[in-house]
Amino acid sequence: MALKYKAEYEYTSIIGDKEIKFKQWTAKEERKYLKLLEKEETNITDKVIYDTLIKPCIEDKSKNIVLSGIEQKKLLIDIRIKSISEFIEDTHTCKFCEKEYDIKVKIEDIMTYKKANYRTIEIKNMKFNFGPIKTNKEKEKLNINNGLVEYIFQDFLLHIYSIEIDGEVQDKFSKKELIDFIDSLPTMIFDEIFDEYQKMVDDLIIEYKSICPECNKEEIVDYTYIPNFLWA
Questions:
Q1: Looking at residue 43, what is its pLDDT?
Q2: Cα separation of 32 and 34, whole Å?
Q3: What percentage of the chain has pLDDT greater than the value 70?
Q4: Smallest Cα–Cα separation from 21: which of 53, 59, 56?
Q5: How far is CA 194 from CA 88, 131, 162, 177, in A?
Q6: CA pair distance 96, 218, nearest whole angstrom
Q7: Cβ atoms of 54 and 1 closer than 8 Å
Q8: Which tens digit of pLDDT belongs to each residue from 195-208?
Q9: What crossing angle do the helices spanning 148-158 and 175-184 adopt, rounded to 10°?
Q10: Phi/psi zone of residue 16: left (φ > 0), alpha (ψ -120 to 50 degrees), beta?
Q11: Taking the CB of residue 31, how many other CB atoms lie within 10 A of it?
Q12: How confident is the model at residue 121 (pLDDT cuts 50, 70, 90)?
């Protein structure tokens, strides 16, 4: 008999209207991720995280489900909860008295997830129709290492399905044509469109309202950007 442990896809992550079956991380995924962290020159992009910590854990039929960056993070945290712990355990330094104290908090109690709600924005003589990113190939083009401003802008472009100007719908354009058009908009118009777009997109926040046992002061400890998913 071959010496092999078989993990089952016994857990389910519900993300909006998407249902993804997954299994726990194995020692192999942990080791691969730790090796990535050792290499300071490695760019740990969304794709690297997906390929290392998500793809090996989800059912084959779930691998083609297109996830936004936020949805991917929600799935990653769901896998982390079942694989490592449902708690964040941390030593925190109070920003008021600089006293160190331990925090142990259940992730689901401090996590807020907002589902995306895409729609059409009307402004002046134009209508901008937004929707979710259509393919994983499109999503993989996003790279946070190009800078946060550029990442957010490129993500914004991928959600534009069509633009209607004076009743004429434009839905077949190259990326360059779209960038040139957006860049030509007056700042006031672009800002209004982008502000409305920001209200549509999904969001995930992990914040803990902590009270220092030494000085009794309250502060918000932000775990939204957990630096290490394996033990933070």
A1: 67
A2: 6
A3: 95
A4: 59
A5: 34, 14, 15, 18
A6: 9
A7: no
A8: 999 999 999 999 99
A9: 110
A10: left
A11: 10
A12: very high
